[in-house]
Amino acid sequence: MPRLKRITAAGFPQHVIQRGNNREACFFAEADYLTYLHWLERAARTYQVAVHAYVLMTNHVHLLATPGLEGGVSRMMQYLGRHYVQYINKTHRRSGTLWERRFHASVIETETYLLTLHRFIELNPVRAGMVKTPEEYRWSSAKDHLGLMGGSLIVNHDVYLRLGAGGEERARAYAALMREPLEERALLQIRDAARQGCALGSDEFKDQIEIQLGRRVRLARPGRKPKQADPPGFRQALSAAARAGARRLILTLLSLVPLLPRKEARRAEGGLFGKFRFDADSFSKRRGFSGGDVSSVPTSRS
Asked: What average pLDDT does the structure give for the chain?
């Protein structure tokens, strides 16, 4: 499937997905989850990335994060991957790659999709049938946002903070949102955007990002590009110009034939015009020429 180059600009929330190689497990024990979160927090602080939500599934990871510096998310994931893979290979006596070669990421429109991404990420274990409620799953940020636990990793976005004046009010408002099912259309949009590297949001948001970044943030429509309509009279003018050019070329070539010896002239005439033979007088009359400019051209008759 076609995929766009990653958007690395600072200040835009990004939905990041990283999967185990061949969709195999990347967490094997409780200590693995704890180690991953440790290196995630250190990497986020090192490269000034605010992590708003996360979930660690058995064979993949979802993150919602905003980079404070350009390229911050990519550097964070490289740092995290390098240290976590070294830990896994050493601890479980394995070798080779752990993750897919490239993580997926999409920039999202804050006001429209940020809380939707929150819910998408933290409801992942529920959709997978691992738990009945999001707060039951230990390895996600759901408890942080539902007021059941507070950690140092999560940096709440302004959109979440506007849910209420205090922590308890925000937690209640967010819990009400979590009880609302996500629409199937929203699920497809989120997955497709991350897989293709496109921006997730309204057309106005995508237009704004494309103008700001000077590049596309959505895939081009499939199929051949539509041809641009010719201006009125263009084809007629082009045809007339082509005929005039052809006429000038023929006259120029015919004027050069008498300068050659007769044998070479016949050979040139035959090479230029193939099986066709020109009668200079009739050619001149048909084309409306007068004078002896072409009447003296030697011709061959079969």
From this structure: 83
Tokens of 227: 């041809």
Give me the residue spans of the domains in the chain.
14-213, 243-302
Neighbour-count burial of 292, counting CB atoms closer than 10 A to its CB (0-12 exposed, 13-18 middle, 19+ buried) = exposed
**With contact defined as beta carbons under 8 Å apart, do 160 and 170 qualify?**
yes
Start-to-end C-alpha separation, the chain: 64
Rounded (10°) angle between helices 72-91 and 30-46: 150
pLDDT the model gives residue 276: 46
pLDDT digits (tens, 9 = 90+) for 54-92: 999 999 999 999 999 999 999 999 999 999 999 999 999
Tell me the DSSP string of 239-287: HHHHHHHHHHHHHHHHHHGGGS-HHHHHHHHHHHHTT----HHHHHHHH
pLDDT of residue 265: 58
CATH superfamily of the domain spanning 14-213: Transposase IS200-like (3.30.70.1290)
β-pair type (104-107, 49-56): unpaired
Residues 221-226 have a mean pLDDT of: 55
CB 116 within 8 A of CB 40: no
Tokens of 228: 């641009």
Q: Sheet with 104-107: list strands edge to edge.
A: 49-56, 60-67, 14-19, 104-107
